[in-house]
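From the methods appendix. Each design record in this collection lists the discretized structure first, followed by the designed amino acid sequence. Records were kept in a plain field format so they could be parsed without special tools. The example shown here is representative of the layout used throughout.

RECORD:
C-ALPHA CELLS (171 positions):
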C-alpha cells in the first residue's frame, strides 16, 4: 500500500519509528533508514529523530549526511534574523547545530562542539534543544578543565522542569 506514493509511505514509516523509538530504538532506526530517501523532503522532527538514532548507534557519517540535507532543505535566509525565520526552518537549523555539536563531541572535538552549542543558544534561544545544548556546553567546559564554570550549568539543567530524567541523571 502507498507503493506509488513514496513520500506518504516514508512519512507513515517515520511515524511508526517515532512510536517505537522509546521501547525499541534499534528497530526504529532500521525502519527510518529503510524509509529515508535523500530526494524526499522530511519534517525537521523526523530528520532530528533519525540523526539522534544514528548518533546513538555511532553512525556519524550517516548523521552528517542527514544534517547536511536538513540544512539545505530548510535554509536560513541570508540577512533574516533567526527568530524571524519560519518555525520549521528554526527547528531544522537548531537541530542542525545541535547535531553538528554532538558529532564534534563524539569525535572528541569538545571545543568545536561547544561552539556549535553556543551558536544554537544564541540564535535559537527558544529551541527545545537548549537544555541538551547546555549539557553539551557543560561537557565541553569539563573537558577543558573548567569544572567550576560547568557546575552552574549542570545545576540549572537538574532544576529544569522540562529536562528529561536521563538528562538530569547525566548532569
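DESIGN:
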Amino acid at each position: 500500500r502507498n507503493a506509488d506514493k513514496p513520500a506518504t509511505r516514508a512519512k507513515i514509516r517515520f511515524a511508526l519509528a517515532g512510536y517505537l523509538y522509546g521501547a525499541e530504538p534499534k528497530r526504529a532506526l532500521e525502519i527510518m533508514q529503510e524509509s529515508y530517501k535523500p530526494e524526499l523532503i522530511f519534517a525537521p522532527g523526523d530528520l532530528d529523530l533519525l540523526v539522534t538514532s544514528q548518533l546513538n548507534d555511532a553512525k556519524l557519517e550517516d548523521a552528517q549526511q542527514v544534517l547536511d540535507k536538513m540544512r539545505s532543505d530548510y535554509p536560513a535566509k541570508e540577512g533574516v534574523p533567526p527568530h524571524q525565520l519560519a518555525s520549521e526552518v528554526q527547528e531544522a537549523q537548531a537541530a542542525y547545530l545541535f547535531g553538528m555539536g554532538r558529532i564534534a563531541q563524539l569525535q572528541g572535538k569538545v571545543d568545536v562542539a561547544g561552539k556549535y552549542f553556543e551558536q544554537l543558544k544564541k540564535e535559537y534561544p527558544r529551541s527545545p534543544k537548549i537544555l541538551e545544548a547546555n549539557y553539551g556546553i557543560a561537557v565541553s567546559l569539563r573537558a577543558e578543565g573548567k569544572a567550576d564554570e560547568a557546575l552552574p550549568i549542570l545545576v540549572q539543567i537538574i532544576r529544569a522542569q522540562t529536562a528529561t530524567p536521563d538528562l538530569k541523571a547525566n548532569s
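APPENDIX NOTE: The chain has a mean pLDDT of 93.
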